[in-house]
What we know:
Enolase-like, domain 1, binds magnesium ion, alpha/beta, binds D-gluconic acid
Amino acid sequence: MKIIDAKVFVGGPGKNYVTLKVMTDQGVYGLGDATLNNRETLPAAYLKDYLIPNLIGRDPRNSEDIWQYFYRGAYFRRGPIAMAAFGAIDMALWDIKAKLAGMPLYQLFGGKSREGALVYAHANGADLEDLMDSIASYQEQGYKAVRVQCGIPGMPTAGYGVADKGQADKQFITDFSGIRPKEEIWDADRYMRFMPDALSQIRERFGAELKILHDVHHRLLPREAAEFAKSVEHVGLFWLEDPTPADDQDALKFLRQHSTVPIAIGEVFNSIWDCKQLIENELIDFIRVAVTYAGGITHVKRIVDLAALHHVRTGFHGAPSHSPLCMAAQAHLNAWAPNFGIQEYLTLGTAECDALFPSNHRMEQGMMMVSDEPGLGVDFDEAEASRYSYKPGSHPVVRLEDGTLWNY
Ligand code: GCO
Ligand code: MG
């Protein structure tokens, strides 16, 4: 069996999905995702200029050897662009393998460990009142877990993950007004004064059952993060996400000495080497890698297995920018993983997106139900794809009030 061709498509409804289609001489094809948010053209170029010419002619069933060939063959290790490109090929090859077996992908990992995967939605508000309404609306839709982000009084710009007043139900996607990032202001003192009490009020209003998550988005210093974590312990958070940038993995030891709040880190990591120390030293409780950004199923499954040895559960990244193909790969891992924790979920569900990526993956009462179709269980409509093209966009950058550059 041989790979005879592969094509890359860039575009989508309000996003720049990078979709790889790998064709074989037996008519079976596989789909993979290389959507690196805000840098989408780069994995697409890597795929087209280097990887695809070296993929044609290979046996698609040898997904391990092909992964090693590209990873080791690059000589220069890791990096989000390369790992997203390898990830797309890897996903497509697992899709082919499972289609050949006539089984949904999770069967090749060891079958189902659960019927549905718990997901969390994104509630937000320009102020606490808006945020409370947003949480209530997700609860009404059946969500059992909600990430809560709130505008901070006195802070000149809204803050991470927060929409304008009355706009909380708008999905957060990239700003497509151009390639030059907007700027936001961060003020740790105002945040530290406001957010712990806001979280307490949310717990009081919604009661003990709601799983509450909060994302600091890499903005605190290690000492501030420890103080913050300590001050929200009584809230009983499901997790506190990215309290510090985590480039300095040792810094998390300090936080751990001061608080038992569950910590989730890893959405910006792209290899097992980025999280090995955090996992082995048991400095985190949830690993947040995404199958696309971290080299595909072959590599992420290794991370999940390492995490399982250290009581670290999964909480895969699933921001609005993630393609349904990445979400499907994660749905199959979620169905199997003995150490599954939760899944961030925002992608599926718009009519245009469903038309581009038809699938039977579905949501039921705050749980993601995996498709039983052979393979990843997602198709790609090329005629729909021809309606979309690449749109330049960017994440904001963040500064302190005096102009110092900070972490988005
Ligand atoms: C999350 C993330 C995202 C990122 C985005 C960057 O927890 O979902 O923090 O919102 O900001 O994925 O591309
Ligand atoms: Mg995050």
